[in-house]
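Project channel, design review

CF: Before we commit to the Saccharothrix longispora constructs, I'd like one complete example in the thread so the newer folks can see what an input/output pair looks like. Taking HEAT repeat protein.
RD: sounds good, go ahead.
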Amino acid sequence: MAAEVAAPLTVPADLPPTVDLAWRDAELERAARALVAGDTGPARALLAATHDPERRDLRVDVLGEAGQHVLPALHSAVDERHDADSLLLLGSALNAAAWEERGEAYAQYTEEDRLARFLDLADQARTALRRAAELAPDDVVPWARLMSLALGAPEHDQDGDQVFVRVQMLCPDLVSANEHRLQMLADKWYGSHERMLEFARVRVSDLPAGHPLLALVPAAHVEVPLRDAESVSFRRRWRSIDYLARRVVRLEVAAVSDHLLAAGDAERGHPRWMRANQVFATYYAGVEAVAGLKREDVRRFLGHMAEAGERASRWPWSYFGDHHAEFAKARMLADKLG
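CF: and here is what came back for HEAT repeat protein:
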């Protein structure tokens, strides 16, 4: 039976393309639209009512991406209230603005003026997020955003280690923080393929069925050929590398794929569920392009695409081009293979 994969959706006209859309949350969508229009009230009210760490983290992530375009409004909200949620929104938006300024290229390819603006915005973001953490010491989300800053603009060599320790104290399985930790340990940042893969394997070793952190394994494997190409231009030529289709890699990813797809209804409601399935789908689309999918891997790919939602995650599809276009290709592949 063919997988039911609908036509790809475009970015809503009132949300900027910087906003990752791999989620279903009507309240968040309304708050993000209001924020882009300069109204910070719905975003702050939404955060005040959100206590689940994963849902709160997703909402702050999305609202930060939207809020980077209305920084004056967020600064004004902080000046008026100076509460933890306003500071968290501002810090997340400044962090998003910093990364947009830096761009996707390696630091040595980033123009000096853009790099200077990145560092300035990162410093402002760190100040706001630390104050938010002080005002709400039990909230893991400011620390998750500080993980992003420790990746791109660490204050010192142990910055990422220290921030991650704090995350583990508060919410050890928080998906975004563990994704940033995986990146820190990658060869392209401060680690190696071996350290990155070891981290992924240890983190998934005792996870329950359906946990989105299982996607750390295919995410780590996708990173290997990207770095080994030693060229940014390889992001358009990744299919020439057969690493993803090696038997040992396929078997490892297959095991965690099956464990994710064994999720129950509760696990499928996780805020990061759709993006986790898109990470697996990215891996399997790569294997299909390199060597073709075996029958069981076709089943896994179709299973992940059926759970991936209708809107593209920026990461990891954007490694290989426009994330909307790459996701649309994967949907067409699912139609073909189904």
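RD: helpful, thanks. Confidence is low (pLDDT under 50) at residues 1-11, 231-236.
CF: The longest helix spans residues 112-135.
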